[in-house]
Structures are given as structure tokens and as C-alpha cells.
Write a structure and sequence with these properties.
Elements: H1 3-6, H2 20-28, E1 32-34, H3 41-44, E2 56-63, E3 66-74, H4 82-126, H5 131-146, E4 150-156, E5 172-179, E6 185-192, H6 196-204, E7 208-210, H7 229-232, E8 238-246, E9 249-258, H8 266-329, H9 336-359, E10 365-366, H10 367-381, E11 389-395, E12 399-400, H11 402-422, E13 429-438, E14 441-448, H12 455-458, H13 465-477, E15 481-486, E16 490-497
Parallel strand pairs: 11-13
Antiparallel strand pairs: 1-2, 2-3, 4-5, 4-9, 5-6, 7-8, 8-9, 10-12, 13-14, 14-16, 15-16
Helix pairs in contact: 4-5, 4-8, 5-8, 8-9, 9-10, 9-11, 10-11, 11-13
């Protein structure tokens, strides 16, 4: 005789809200019976396919001030009267107690399940350093938490690359990962950033629950389910969308997809947001770890480079000392103090080169920029009273690697030191440098406005330590060649192979 049994075992009512005669009882908050109920199901407040009702008795189930529902019996032979109403009202408190106990048990089980899922999620994410793995864990746990048919990840294009600022407007959203009844899928589904449920969440920065997408959507754009239904193999009805934040910026959306029409309450949103927050924190940690790993590689590389440079500088200093000693043995009458001054100047040049390369982070340098740095450092260290000095650089945008820059800077330093000593004309020191690329060779032409090289130097009979150093560096370290001539002053031409991996190192030859 119980209505719920007569309507089919375990089948939930089609309408969750009470209406008709069934809605009249909770609203009245007292029992009611009728031996001539409405003949239609709508008037009774029952499903359309419910068996006919010939008589009706119902009492409200009330917990405190809140109606829980109603207890209904129907179709009793002879109908119902006050006596049956009194009996059913006496039974109602016991039913309320049983319902309260059952609801409490269900709430406890649900809360236990929620905590288990959240704890498991955090444990799994703690050991994940790959973004795809992190997103897969989040989608799997969202499906487990809500018993949903699927879940999806929408990402703002470029958000994971670290090239978006907090005020940058996204151009597109991309569905990267989709989890359904089968294995997780890697996709590349795109939509305009402002369209659909995901676009609304990114734009507003807050969650959005849609109990039935078959109804009118609260957001603009194409009908949502058509994008994912074919890949999921189910008709998506209910969708819960929560923002995925990276460093406080909305970088995407996690979505819970269900084939059932269902309402997601504030508690559901909070739980989904907790999983999204854990996933966002895990991705941030993964990015920090990757950055730390790259920084460690760069630091180790720089340490090795610095160690290499220090060793090279020490070797160069020893070479300079031996060269000065050779000058003495060969009978050069240079005053000891002048010899020490020259040696100190060259060691100072090594320090200047090291400082220039350190300031650039041991990165490739343009030849023209390097020449300006070397000339400026040499001019500052000059003890000449004539401060009229000028450098005119006409250089193609050609880069050299750190090793080439180190050696080339030493050559330019020697040429500049020589020009400071011997290359002054009527207008002071005027130095011109031309840099070009010729047949894969970096070629420098360095000229001053002084009297030029002495004939003995051009003939190779008189070579100073500086010229010996230039010859050794160009031929041995740069694997190039060089020459000296006079043309309105001293002219030095240096050529060496260009690095093909750097700007200006390959392609069309440069001509000024």
C-alpha cells in the first residue's frame, strides 16, 4: 500500500520538488487524507506513469522546523479516516528519527570519502613533477570524488610557458586532457577564450555549475557539449567548472562532466576548487623545480667557464713573464721599470677582458661592442696628458663566442695600447675599426692616425712582446691570420673563422 513501493522498487521520483496533493501536505505541516483524490497524476503530484490512486493519506515528516518530506499510504480498501490519520501521525516521529540516522550516516560516509580523496590527491601530487601527470591525477580524483562520467582540462594557450603576465588577455583555450570511461585522452580542441563555460570561468575567475546543459546556457558561445561528447562517448548533461590558478593567475579550467542532470552545491564547488588548488600548487612546484634544475646547470657551466678562464689567464700571465724574460736574454736594453710597467699593463688587460666577459654572463658578444669596451678601458688607464682620443667603429652585427671574445679582446687591447703609445697625430689619438664578414671569416681592420709601423717591424726584424702576443693569439687561439701595413698610419688586419652558430656567422656576406 506504500506509494513508493507501488511506483516501482528503488525508482526515484521524476520531480524532486513536491507539488499537487503531495506538496499540499508538507506545506500544510499536518496530516491530510482524501478518499476522492484527483484522478490525474499531476494533481496528485506523482509521476505520470504512477499507478492510479483511489484514496490517499499523507503526513509530513518534519525535523525541527524543516520539512524532510512526507509519509504517504494509498489505495486502502474502505478508504481512510481520522483513526488511520492518527496512527500514521504516531508513526511519523519514528520515521523521522530513522531518516535522521540514515542521513547522518550518509553524511559521515560522504565526508570520509571526500577527505580520503583529498588526502590521496595531495599525496599523489606531492611526487609529481610533470604537468601532464599532475593534470591526469586531478581529473581522475575529480571523477572519483563526484562519481562523474568524465573530467576535462582547458588551458589558456601559453599559460604553462611562463610568457603570460597577470594582465594579459588570453586568445584561446585548449582542451589538452580528457578523462572518460576509458583511458585519458590527449587532445588539441580549441575555442575562443571568451566562449563556453570554460571561457566564462577564465574571464570571471570563479566557479560555475550548470545542472543541465540542455537548458539555456548562462554563457555566450557555441553549444558546449558538442566539443567533448564525441570523444567521451556520452551525452554531457551537468558540468561543474572551477578555475586552475598558477601563481594567482587563472591559467585554465578543470571541469567535472556528468551524463546525469544534477545540481552541484557550494560544498561540491569547494571540494573541486580544493583539488584545482592542489593541482595548481603542484604545477607551480614543478615549474620551480625545473627552474632550479636549469639554474643549477647554468651555475655549473659558469663555474667551469670561470675556472677555465682563470687557468687561461694564469697561463697567459706566465707566458707574458717568459716573453719579457726572453726580451732581456735577447739583449733588449729596456729599462726594468718600463718592462714591469708593460707587464702590469698586459696583466691589467687580462683583468679587463675577464670583467667584460663576466658582465656579459659569458654570452656571445658583438665585435663592435667588444671593441668599444676594450678601447674605453684602455683609454681610462692611459697616463698620457693628451686626452684627445676617439674610436670610430664601422662594424657589421657579427657575434663571437666567449672564447673568441676573450682572445680577440686581448688582441684589441694590444693594438689599442700600441696606438696610445705611438699612434697619436695632430688631432690626438684617432682610431678607426672596420668589421666585416668575408667568406666565412670575421675580418677586422684597425688603423690609427699616427706615423705608422717602423720599417724594421714591417720587415719582421723587430717584434715586441705585444706583437709576439698578437701573432700567437691570432694564429694559435683564433686559428686565423693577420698582417701589418701603413696607410696614413698603422694598419692591422686580423681575420679568423666565424662561428656559424652565432648571428652574422653565416649567410650573405656583409659589405659596408
Amino acid at each position: 500500500d506504500v506509494v513508493s513501493e507501488a511506483s516501482g522498487a528503488g525508482r526515484p521520483p521524476a520531480e524532486p520538488a513536491f507539488h499537487g496533493m503531495c506538496g499540499y501536505v508538507p506545506g500544510l505541516r499536518r496530516g491530510y487524507y482524501s478518499n476522492e483524490p484527483p484522478a490525474d497524476a499531476e494533481g496528485l503530484g506523482l509521476p505520470a506513469d504512477h499507478p492510479p490512486i483511489t484514496c490517499f493519506l499523507g503526513v509530513p515528516l518534519i525535523r525541527g522546523e524543516q520539512p524532510l518530506g512526507l509519509l504517504v499510504v494509498a489505495n486502502r480498501e474502505g478508504g481512510y479516516g481520522p483513526e488511520q490519520l492518527e496512527d500514521l501521525e504516531a508513526l511519523a516521529p519514528a520515521v523521522v528519527q530513522a531518516l535522521e540516522k540514515k542521513l547522518a550516516e550518509e553524511a559521515l560516509l560522504r565526508r570520509t570519502h571526500e577527505l580520503e580523496v583529498l588526502n590521496r590527491t595531495n599525496q599523489r601530487l606531492a611526487g609529481s613533477l610533470e604537468t601532464e601527470d599532475i593534470l591526469d591525477v586531478a581529473l581522475e580524483e575529480l571523477c572519483s570524488l563526484f562519481g562523474a562520467a568524465g573530467a576535462a582540462t582547458w588551458l589558456v594557450e601559453g599559460a604553462l610557458d611562463g610568457d603570460r603576465g597577470p594582465d594579459t588577455r588570453p586568445d584561446a583555450l585548449v582542451c589538452r586532457r580528457l578523462r572518460g570511461p576509458g583511458p585519458a585522452l590527449t587532445l588539441d580542441l580549441r575555442q575562443r577564450a571568451g566562449d563556453g563555460l570554460a571561457g566564462w570561468v577564465v574571464g570571471h575567475g570563479c566557479s560555475l555549475a550548470v545542472p543541465d546543459v540542455a537548458a539555456e546556457l548562462p554563457v555566450p558561445g557555441p553549444l558546449y557539449p558538442t566539443l567533448l561528447t564525441a570523444h567521451l562517448g556520452i551525452d554531457v548533461r551537468a558540468v561543474l567548472s572551477v578555475p586552475l590558478r598558477l601563481k594567482s593567475t587563472v591559467a585554465g579550467v578543470l571541469q567535472v562532466l556528468d551524463a546525469r542532470s544534477r545540481g552541484f552545491d557550494a560544498r561540491d564547488q569547494s571540494l573541486a576548487e580544493s583539488i584545482a588548488a592542489a593541482a595548481g600548487s603542484a604545477i607551480d612546484r614543478a615549474h620551480l623545480y625545473e627552474q632550479a634544475r636549469r639554474d643549477a646547470i647554468v651555475r655549473d657551466t659558469l663555474l667551469r667557464e670561470v675556472n677555465h678562464r682563470v687557468k687561461n689567464n694564469l697561463s697567459a700571465i706566465l707566458g707574458l713573464v717568459h716573453a719579457e724574460g726572453r726580451r732581456t736574454r735577447e739583449g733588449d736594453k729596456l729599462h726594468p721599470q718600463e718592462m714591469l710597467d708593460d707587464l702590469a699593463a698586459r696583466v691589467g688587460s687580462l683583468a679587463t677582458v675577464h670583467a667584460i666577459l663576466s658582465a656579459s654572463g659569458w654570452r656571445p658578444l658583438e665585435v663592435g661592442e667588444l671593441a668599444r669596451e676594450v678601447f674605453a678601458a684602455a683609454a681610462l688607464s692611459s697616463d698620457s696628458d693628451d686626452r684627445r682620443m676617439a674610436l670610430d667603429v664601422n662594424a657589421a652585427p657579427i657575434q663571437v663566442d666567449p672564447e673568441q671574445a676573450h682572445q680577440l679582446a686581448l688582441v684589441l687591447g694590444e693594438l689599442t695600447t700600441n696606438a696610445l703609445k705611438y699612434g697619436r697625430g695632430d688631432q690626438g689619438l684617432q682610431v678607426a675599426l672596420h668589421v666585416s664578414l668575408e667568406d666565412g671569416q670575421v675580418c677586422l681592420v684597425y688603423r690609427d692616425g699616427g706615423p705608422g709601423y717602423p720599417p724594421a717591424v714591417l720587415a719582421g726584424h723587430d717584434r715586441s712582446v705585444g706583437l709576439w702576443l698578437i701573432d700567437n693569439i691570432v694564429r694559435t687561439s683564433l686559428r686565423g691570420h693577420w698582417s701589418m701595413s701603413n696607410d696614413g698610419g698603422a694598419v692591422t688586419r686580423v681575420c679568423f673563422p666565424a662561428n656559424p652558430g652565432l648571428r652574422g656567422g653565416k649567410g650573405i656576406e656583409w659589405r659596408d
